[in-house]
Amino acid sequence: xxxxxxxxxxxxxxxxxxxxxxxxxxxxxxxxxxxxxxxxxxxxxxxxxxxxxxxxxxxxxxxxxxxxxxxxxxxxxxxxxxxxxxxxxxxxxxxxxxxxxxxxxxxxx
Length: 109
Hints:
This protein is an all-alpha fold. The protein has helices at 2-27, 32-47, 57-78, 86-104. α1 (2-27) runs antiparallel to α2 (32-47), α1 crosses α3 (57-78) and α3 (57-78) packs antiparallel against α4. The longest helix has 26 residues, at 2-27. The two termini are 19 Å apart. 19% of the residues are buried. It is found in: Cell membrane; Endomembrane system. InterPro entries: EmrE-like, UPF0060. Pfam families: UPF0060. It comes from Brevibacillus nitrificans. The chain crosses the membrane at residues 6-25, 32-48, 60-79, 86-105.
């Protein structure tokens, strides 16, 4: 389970971090190097989920979506300095429950 969570966190940080660098380049007029590095990181984001042991692409990406939401709330808090409110935390908690059900619910096949 540790490797599963670690890979989801790494994928999330790559997607958010890469996207943030591209955002800085295009929206805040940072040098093109930001965009290039962001693009490279986004390519890595595309590779990281393939390292998961789950056989279903859809299930991995559905679960990752919940992890991404939690990481985006944390990114907004730590990087953008936008303090999450109660509803952000409730939504993030619901997402983690959904991720847990998607990945670890007992299945017959």
